[in-house]
């Protein structure tokens, strides 16, 4: 039995195509958004927590950026401007779910509960991943682009095979959607109906390359239809919308409905990293426009208008942020303690004979250096 | 990746030991390498619920070489399944599954078609234990039919071992016989480290009368396949049988050749090698892969370091030529063979040796 339907109609009907305009629950002036779609506004407690975590996350970013300039961190890719994505997506996760972050998602990792000094281990240059992924259900921050999408699909599929109620959320950027692994991951997830949510933080740039040079697709969310993956296009500076969209994706996945692709439109306010000069590829007027869409200011305005936030609470929150920053600063100002013998520890389950010989050689070399001169 | 070559000839023989029949034969019986590998997968699936087998065509078809024949039927599609045609996807999802407690055993259909998965193998599979200070172990096995000698058209005959052995964090093993194919694959699946399991497809249909056993030499140990006094020939995978043939031929010229089957390319069991070469004083390393910066260079260098004062001659290599793998009608000129191994043995400075045989 075949019914003749235009693919676009089928696509909208199945949720395979995103809405033409980005879904929004709270607009940039802090008022109820004009395009909520089927997204429901989170409860006041959730909205307050979204605000709190964004304020803390922003303070963390500011401190980490300052510490990088002081040489305490090797590098810091700032997520300023993407605060709503970082916080909204992670708060939508349930305890048993997994987060697959990238190098720009330190605030997401922090929001998931990983201590600040463990979060910063990679960027401090202490060890590649400073936390136990199983303790927080947070995969190591992924530096090669898009490779983590496949890990998320595999982990989610394994949960399904084991009949565990567990969803994987993978974060990626607009640049990563050009990598082959993203396409393979969306395809595998679609075929397997894997319980996974893909959140594309479309921040406008892959280092210096703007979206227009990255894709000819009308939106990145539109790519979902090619894999039979339902998609959503949302305002990525609206923490309420990010939370609601990711929660909807998790609910769908947990109910056996398979994967969801979400494109959140946002902006990378800072340069790619402290080593980058963004003035070489974008105008300051463009940045100013986005500063006016600040995710924290927006939610702040909404909460105050609704009587959910006042100066006293804001003051307490600022103090909490300062305490976090001081803790980060103190930890990062301590000298890094490393053990060269550990280099050989985690290559294989047990060091090979060759690694044992190399360890002995390195330790002998160090012992020789420590001996007083004759 | 499209599979241009259809291995219809050998595959039509079918594996000698079918998984659907279940248990191991009690006594020795004749088994092919494909049958032994199939039995190893079946026994691993039966022994451990965490084991899953997947890849391209491994389910309903049973693999283009029939290594997974009957497994989907016996263990169900939750345990043995076909995937979309994407190698990075296969390895990348295997990594995620292993993170979530499964033991994936995946198939790359042919050596050269494993290259799309290279980033997942080198940047993640090999490194995740290290990146997480030992918190995340990835007990993944990647089976790769490798090497030439089967008349395959281009991209079906690569010897890709050096790419993997040059990557710390991976184990790389390759069996030379059906009995060892069974043992090594069981050991690889039980191993907590990621293992690249290279299957010499030219020996898939070799037969051996043997009882399949998982115990025996450990996964990282080389074995002496043929004891000898005069020269050590070191080979692995598809070249083990060629080396043994050369040893037989050499015996007619009064050279008593010892043949070592490396089994494990990474880590390298240099102690077994060194013990042999210190005794014989001469060594030849044989592999199909190109010689330049090939695996044999590492073996020769390591043995020179370990056995210098015992060596009567430079360690020689008999390898494939430094060319892209040739078309089927030309591969005989590329591949090491008995004559080239004998020629190498003959060049080992026998004239100045007091103990010259003959």
Oligomeric state of the chains in view: heterodimer
**Integer tally of domains of chain B:** 2
Compute the average pLDDT of chain B: 92
Q: What is the CATH level 1 assignment of the largest domain in chain B?
A: Alpha Beta
Described by strand count, sense and barrel closure, the largest sheet of chain A is: 5 strands, parallel
Order of helices and strands of chain A: HEEHHEHHHHHEHEEEEHEHHHH
Q: Using DSSP, what is the number of strands of chain B?
A: 14
How are the secondary structure elements laid out?
The complex is a heterodimer of chains A (374) and B (358).
Chain A: H1 7-14, E1 24-26, E2 32-35, H2 44-69, H3 83-91, E3 98-100, H4 106-111, H5 116-119, H6 121-124, H7 133-136, H8 147-161, E4 168-173, H9 180-192, E5 196-202, E6 205-206, E7 209-210, E8 231-235, H10 239-254, E9 260-265, H11 284-291, H12 295-305, H13 311-333, H14 353-370
Parallel strand pairs in A: 3-4, 4-5, 5-9, 8-9
Antiparallel strand pairs in A: 1-2, 6-7
Chain B: H1 8-11, E1 29-32, H2 33-47, E2 51-55, H3 71-75, E3 80-82, H4 87-99, E4 103-107, H5 118-125, H6 128-131, E5 141-146, H7 161-165, E6 171-173, H8 178-190, E7 195-200, E8 207-210, E9 223-226, E10 231-235, H9 239-251, E11 257-261, E12 264-266, H10 270-280, E13 283-290, H11 295-307, E14 316-320, H12 331-334, H13 338-346
Parallel strand pairs in B: 2-3, 2-4, 4-5, 5-7, 6-7, 10-11, 10-13, 13-14
Antiparallel strand pairs in B: 1-8, 6-12, 9-11
Report on the architecture of this protein.
The complex is a heterodimer of chains A (374) and B (358). The mean pLDDT of chain A is 95. In chain A, helix 2 runs antiparallel to helix 12 (295-305) and helix 2 (44-69) packs parallel to helix 13 (311-333). By secondary structure, chain A is of the alpha/beta class. Chain A has a five-stranded parallel sheet, with helices on both faces. The termini of chain A are far apart. Chain A has two domains: 10-333, 3-Layer(aba) Sandwich (Rossmann fold); 340-370. In chain A, a hairpin with a 5-residue loop joins strand 1 (24-26) and strand 2 (32-35). Chain A has 14 helices and nine strands. By secondary structure, chain B is α/β, with parallel strands linked by helices. Chain B folds into two domains: 8-210, 3-Layer(aba) Sandwich (Rossmann fold); 223-352, 3-Layer(aba) Sandwich (Rossmann fold). Chain B is built from 13 helices and 14 strands. In chain B, the strands form three sheets. In chain B, strands 3-2-4-5-7-6-12 form a seven-stranded mixed sheet, with helices on both faces. In chain B, strands 9-11-10-13-14 form a five-stranded mixed sheet, sandwiched between helices. Chain B has a two-stranded antiparallel sheet with strand order 1-8. In chain B, helix 9 crosses helix 13. Chain B is globular and about 65 Å long. The chains are: A alpha/beta (374), B alpha/beta (358). The interface between A and B is large, with 41 and 46 residues.
